[in-house]
Specification:
- The chain is α/β, with parallel strands linked by helices.
- The chain is built from 15 helices and 15 strands.
- An eight-stranded parallel beta sheet has the order 6-7-8-9-10-11-12-13.
- Helix 9 links the parallel strand 11 and strand 12.
């Protein structure tokens, strides 16, 4: 097809929106074949189905590169506890937090988990998202971790959206291993990773490196197992404190280090050297009423690519709006609208190891958003407003 009469924000470089006024995009099957001014469309492309976009903004489709959309139950009661003064760590130590979701997820059927997850995925699709990452980590035993990953794969069968899965067995220490995190890593987490990989359920391996979860030595053992299987790694790092997770992620050449509120200048240098994406998650920052902001200026100065994601989860970020995450990234973290859009397109794709999408350039996958706005900054500016006109997924309008 031929998309015409659009303001095309190509994002072909990292330093400008790359807007083409009165632009056109040629799509062949699921790939972008040509992009440029309408006046320059090659004659060979003029005989195909034409869609006049009426001057609307055309961008790459949005990508949510950090989600936990598959889970059982909810944690509204803990939300209330935190509002009454409990900290995230207090809730976790009292048997709440991640462990409470583990209990609900273990008892839920796969069909129930899928049906519940699709309500959240539908909200993301409605805002122009065409690719999401989905983590396990609410099972913490072999059967439930595999169940979660199988459900994540089924999302792409049930909806027009691509899914990348991350094995997050090192998310928390389950109650049956309380006080013995090392035994859990060796006897459950790593064997479950191998079983999930053997079933083709894993695209990357994640961990939660924090005082209330796992230390760097424990995460390193998981990463060594991932490397042995040829799987890339990523890491929840420096969310609540700085215990060296970002440096660990950089040493392993991680796809991304996520949260990173407590990262510092040295961490920024390490991420820049390794090419690791810093994934910022303002939904968790907002929900937990955090005050320590990620070192955006340091990431910017050292050339660390920054992504934004919802971190959709039942506890610290019950957020299903990537557009709101973009607004939060600008308002709370002082990102620019260009950084926010790159953070939900090209840099989000990089955080998932998906180099074929996130920009409007020849050869890229034809995942696109058509917006009822004229300026890219409007996507970050509005709050609680969805200007999506239409979505193109794999070349299909």
């Amino acid at each position: 097809m031929l998309l015409t009469n659009a303001r095309v924000a190509t994002l072909r470089t990292n330093d400008a929106f790359g807007v083409i006024d009165a632009g056109a995009v040629v799509v062949e099957a699921d790939t972008i074949a040509w992009v440029g001014p309408m006046a320059d469309v090659p004659e060979d492309y003029t005989n195909r189905m034409v869609h006049d976009l009426g001057g609307r903004l055309l961008t790459p489709a949005l990508i949510d590169c950090h989600t936990h959309v598959v889970f059982g139950g909810n944690r509204a009661a803990e939300f209330e506890q935190r509002l009454n003064g409990a900290t995230y760590a207090d809730v976790a130590k009292a048997g709440g937090g991640i462990v409470s979701t583990v209990r609900a997820t273990r008892t839920a059927s796969a069909d129930a988990l899928l049906a519940d997850a699709l309500t959240r995925v539908d909200a993301l699709i409605a805002e122009g998202v065409t690719l999401i990452e989905v983590k396990s980590g609410y099972g913490l035993d072999l059967d439930t971790e595999l169940k979660m990953l199988r459900v994540a794969r089924r999302i792409a069968e049930a909806r027009p959206i691509a899914v990348r899965t991350s094995f997050l067995g090192a998310h928390a220490v389950p109650p049956e291993f309380s006080g013995n995190a090392d035994a859990y890593i060796d006897s459950v987490c790593i064997p479950t990773l191998r079983a999930a990989h053997a079933e083709g359920l894993v695209d990357a391996v994640d961990g939660f490196c924090e005082g209330i979860a796992f230390d760097t030595a424990q995460i390193a053992r998981v990463f060594d197992a991932a490397s042995g299987l040829g799987l890339p790694v990523k890491l929840h790092a420096e969310q609540l404190s700085n215990i060296g997770g970002t440096q660990l992620a950089a040493r392993y050449g991680a796809l991304s280090a996520d949260h990173v509120e407590y990262a510092n200048e040295d961490d920024a240098r390490a991420l820049a050297a390794s090419g690791t994406v810093a994934v910022l998650l303002p939904g968790a920052f907002y929900t937990l009423r955090e005050t320590q902001t990620p070192p955006v200026a340091a990431f910017r100065n050292h050339g660390v690519p920054m992504a934004l994601a919802t971190d959709c989860n039942p506890g610290s970020s019950p957020l299903t709006s990537l557009l709101l995450a973009m607004n939060m990234g600008c308002t709370l973290f002082r990102m620019t609208p260009l950084e926010a859009l790159l953070g939900t397109t090209a840099n989000a794709a990089k955080a998932l190891g998906m180099a074929d999408r996130g920009r409007i350039t020849p050869g890229s996958r034809a995942d696109l958003c058509i917006w009822n706005v004229s300026e890219p900054a409007e996507l970050c500016y509005r709050i609680g407003f969805n200007p999506l006109h239409a979505r193109v997924y794999g070349g299909v309008l």
